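During the reporting period the student researcher (J.K.) took over the structure-prediction task from the postdoctoral fellow and processed the backlog of single-chain submissions. One of the processed entries is reproduced below for the supervisory committee.
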Amino acid sequence: MATEQKSLFARIWEIPELKRKILFTLTLLAVYRIGVFVTLPGVNRNAMAEYFTGGEAAGFLGLFNTFSGDAIKQLSVFALGIMPYISASIVFQILTVAIPTLDRLNKEGEQGRKKINQWTRYATIVLALFQGYFISTYLESLGNKIVLEPGLTFRMMSVLTLTTGTAFIMWLGEQITERGIGNGMSLIIFAGIVSGLPDALWEIKNLEQATLLFLLAFVVGVILCIVFMERAQYRIPIQYTKRVVGNRAGATQTSYLPLRVNMAGVIPPIFASSLLIFPSTLASWAGTGWLNTITDSLVPGTWTYVVVFSALTLFFCYFYTAVMFNPSDVAENLKRQGGSVPGIRPGQPTADYIDTTLTRLTFAGGIYVALVCVVPMFIQDQFKVSFYFGGTSLLIVVSVCLDTIQQIEAHLYEANYSALSDTSDAPKLRETEAI
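J.K. obtained the following structure tokens:
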């Protein structure tokens, strides 16, 4: 078994296209990680590190820092990370459902989606300009000599630099998606989270042995739960009847329509976290009393945050599944292909059946995602460990790993199929050459 696994891993580097994709992805992720250590002009990075070390940067700032790969702590040009793009994506996905024009564009195919993606990029730049200004004013409000020369010049330079950094990260993510392996945006978040794991492990070394064993067992249990649920699916049986000339009965073939329990993947908790960060961003800029009250009540680990985060996660599970999967279109395609669900009439009854099944699965998947993201918060609060052991971080890391591995396996299977096809065609080619 070990030999088979080793040969499978070795085959990755024997396929030129797959090797090129993986090296390209790793190179761009390395560029991203190098950029995290490029400091924003006019700031004192050491003073910001002391601010984090003192434990004052808890709550959303710590969560935001985790997703950005310590870019906030480093006062990096990549401090905004990919969050503006995620926020813009949320807006346009909601608008796609609400505005018929965008819905028609989305259904036009590749060209329509390209136009929506272009508008999403423009919205990302606008959001980055606003968030860059919020961060610059927030840094000035912290004191502690973090900003060397506060004022309009610093704010303008910070806004320009942070917006450019976000645009560059967005470009990196799109290049990885198009020319590399895996989803570029997810891999960038993954790289940011994983980069902090060594420090997080070093942080827990002083815990008591029993506490350490419990914490590690808990993390392993969460990982196993994520792997199981991310691969879990419900298969709806589909029967296809072949048309046969004459009086003979048509042969029936049975297939399956697989529906994943968590069809939305890691998108719901990322979207929920992005939305919950927004009030604190506004409060840091405006300093309004009611905004500060909302921010204080939505600090990660509080019951208010748990309830709101869980509700948003469940909502985005349903919303993203509805955007990505249309039961009516699936039922119509099955009808055209002569397929049907046993005991269900083709057409609208089949669409209703698929929709009901998907609704129940999505509810189970939403509860699973919410529990995986929320329960570890209480462990973090109890043992005072890092955000890197939070459920959202683990869910993103494990899910991105599974998705990337599946894409690598798909390339391997495709290469094997091509090799077999070439082998089977070889005798015919030799025969042709002989003639």
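The committee noted the following: The two ends are 45 Å apart (CA to CA).
J.K. will present the remaining backlog at the next meeting.
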